[in-house]
Amino acid sequence: MSFRLSYRADPGNPWFSWQYVRDNSDTILAALRDHASLTARAVLIAALVALPLAVAAHWFRPLAGPILAFTGVLYTIPSLALFALLAPYLGIGAVTVLSVVVLYALLVIVRNAVAGLSQVPPDVREAAEGMGYGRWGRLLRIELPLALPGILTGLRLATVSTVALVTVGVVVGRGGLGQLIFAGFQNNFYKAEIMTGTLLCVLLALVLDLLLAGLGRAVTPWLRGRPR
Amino acid sequence: MSNPVGQAVVWLNDPLNWTNPGGVLDRLGEHLGMSAAAVLLGCLVAWPVGLWLGHTGRGGGLVVLVSNVTLAIPTLALLTILPLTFLGFGRPAVVVALAVFAVPPLLANAYTGVRQADPEARDAARGMGLSGGQVLRQVELPLAVPYLAAGFRTAAVQVVATAALASFVNGGGLGQIIRAGFGLDIAAGGGQIIAGGLLVAGLAMLVELVLAVVERLVTPRPLRPARRANRRAADAVAGS
């Protein structure tokens, strides 16, 4: 291009530019909000579906194999293929993105919750039974609290990978910060835009991970101070 | 026909869609080519480092850090950033981006594989006068083979899956078919989108199955049952 952008002498193509961030703060914040809300909704839905599944797998041993196998097969399917298989039915937009990332988060949470539940020591379970706890009482008062570290590990892994995965939503036009990254690539490879999207993505993953870690510490006070 | 699956079947049954330039066969070749290059590159980097770290017993934190950080980096970001660096546009940048995602499973399994080698075997080898390098080559490495194979399988499946995203930067591969379908608009391209999705998903599962067989073949018989128990223990520790 021969003409210059009005007020800048030479825009160049730096890896990062505060000028860009200031000029486009609205777009950037909107993308960040969209990304965060998609991630939060996805992890919440996945957790609400995954926990009952994990409990079912825990209570009815024969179900554990099929549930884990099903989520395992799901995980082998590449994300873009899953988008391709769902988009013609769910349309272009947030519903498709949410469905895909929920399916992936599901596996991680189920796996870790099942592992956490199965790590409850058998003597503890027997003691609870001896004290007269029923199936539900034992689950809510004994097994789930003891499985909390496993469940939280699953939630953290699921959250971090969901943040990264949402960017693939670009293919249906709702990739959150991925939208920024991809637009930068298409706008004549504008590095500052790509970098801003990437940094915010990694930062969002880090912040959400720390939040969940803090939450984990808050809800498992009995683990504090114990050597890992 | 408005049913997308019907359209997908029609699309897949058109021989020209397979043999045309840029058809399924071309894209499959590109997909496998760049995946193989990426896994190879990942192995060349991750295995020596992982084996060495495992041998010296240091760097466990580094292994965890690498896998956590790569989990948080979006594939799309690496695919768009790397071509703008000295790598330049084209195949090398895509291969490096994919290799980055192959490193964590390769590294972690190489490290764990050496760490889990029976300490008595290691001590016996030392007592026989083997040097550090000899212990690594003749004792620890053979014992780590099941882990190396498991890591290879995880990494390869992951790379084949991720290679579909190379289409975002026109890097070729089967993902290109899906992207072209989305480019057509969902009503017109629905069949092609689903056909591409089926091809990509089918390839990933095929690779997973083939490598599962390979993994079993390269694992020496005596290591098979013990390995399973050990690996479960390793998973449990990693998960805590």
UniProtKB/TrEMBL annotation, chain A:
The entry's keywords: Membrane, Transmembrane, Transmembrane helix, Transport
First-listed, main subcellular location of the protein, grouped into a coarse class: membrane
Tagged with keyword Cell membrane: no
Subcellular location: Cell membrane; Membrane
Superkingdom as given in the UniProt entry: Bacteria
Positions of the ABC transmembrane type-1 domain: 32-212
Xref: CDD domains: TM_PBP2 (cd06261)
GO biological process terms held by the UniProt record: glycine betaine transport; transmembrane transport
GO cellular component: plasma membrane
Membrane spanning stretches: 42-60, 67-86, 92-110, 146-174, 194-219
InterPro entries: ABC_transp_perm/SBD, MetI-like, MetI-like_sf
Topology of this chain in the membrane: Multi-pass membrane protein
Family of this protein: Belongs to the binding-protein-dependent transport system permease family.
Name the UniProt record assigns to this protein: ABC transporter permease
Lineage, uppermost ranks: Bacteria, Bacillati, Actinomycetota, Actinomycetes, Micromonosporales
UniProtKB/TrEMBL annotation, chain B:
Residue spans crossing the bilayer: 32-54, 61-87, 93-112, 147-169, 189-214
Compartment(s) where it occurs, according to its Swiss-Prot or TrEMBL record: Cell membrane; Membrane
UniProt similarity note: Belongs to the binding-protein-dependent transport system permease family.
Annotated InterPro entries: ABC_transp_perm/SBD, MetI-like, MetI-like_sf
UniProt KW keywords: Membrane, Transmembrane, Transmembrane helix, Transport
GO CC field: plasma membrane
Domain ABC transmembrane type-1: 28-211
Biological process per Gene Ontology, one example term: glycine betaine transport
Protein name as annotated: ABC transporter permease subunit
Membrane topology: Multi-pass membrane protein
SUPFAM superfamilies: MetI-like
Pfam families recorded: BPD_transp_1
